[in-house]
Amino acid sequence: MKLIVGLGNVGKEYIGTRHNVGFMAIDRIAQANQVEIDTEKFGGRYTILRKYDEKILLLKPERFINLSGEVIKKYVDFFDIKIEDIWIICDDLDLPVGSYRLRYQGGSGGHNGLKNIELHLKTQQYKRIKIGISNNKQMDTKDYVLGKFSKEEKEEIETILMKIPEIFDAFLTMTYDNVMNQYNKK
């Protein structure tokens, strides 16, 4: 079984914010595969789908983003999911809006959701795709990540979100090296 997790914050006030691009990406994968993320368990909302003879669990942790690791760990333990079968989708302040990066492993880069995942999984070696939200050094980081995208930024994010289901399919059918080679922008 594979576990695909989109990071974000729950609540209407967070819909469309920079910190919620992980939720947006998971929603796109669900939509492309004609499933609803409608089951609640362990502090998260999820669905299980079958594709390419594989069971895939799509998860949106429903605790604040900085507690995502607690929720993910419960799913990993309950469904006996291997670390190499986890794919995390999150925002990244260090990447410009309209860009993304697939990685095998790495540090949190200051992202509190990733810090919490590392704490609970006890590793930095899980696959991830980081979606660029840029950074505004003139604003407090918390205010910035909880802010909404501008019209231009929404268009750039939309371009990435349209590509996410394709990258998801590649993740299921190719080695991760090949996925990174094909989709990471040079």
List keywords for this structure.
single chain, 186 residues, seven-stranded mixed β-sheet, alpha/beta, 6 helices
Task: Summarize this entry quickly.
This protein has helices at residues 21-32, 68-79, 112-121, 141-145, 151-173, 176-183; strands at residues 2-6, 39-41, 44-51, 54-61, 86-92, 100-103, 127-132. The protein is of the alpha/beta class. The chain has a seven-stranded mixed β-sheet, sandwiched between helices.
Q: SSE layout and pairings?
A:
Elements: E1 2-6, H1 21-32, E2 39-41, E3 44-51, E4 54-61, H2 68-79, E5 86-92, E6 100-103, H3 112-121, E7 127-132, H4 141-145, H5 151-173, H6 176-183
Parallel strand pairs: 1-4, 1-5, 5-7
Antiparallel strand pairs: 2-3, 3-4, 6-7
Helix pairs in contact: 1-5, 2-3
* Overall geometry: globular
Summing up helix and strand content along with how strands pair, one would put the structural category as alpha/beta
Oligomer: single chain
Query: How many helical stretches?
Result: 6
Rg over alpha carbons: 15 Å
Helix content range of the residues, please?
25-40%
Which strand order do you get reading across the main beta sheet?
2-3-4-1-5-7-6
> How far apart, in Å, are the first and last alpha carbons?
31 Å
Biggest beta sheet attributes:
7 strands, mixed
Strands, total number? 7
User: Which regions have little confidence, pLDDT < 50, spanning 5+ residues?
Assistant: none
SSE pattern: EHEEEHEEHEHHH
Roughly what fraction of the amino acids lie in strands? 15-25%
Task: Give average pLDDT, whole number.
Answer: 87
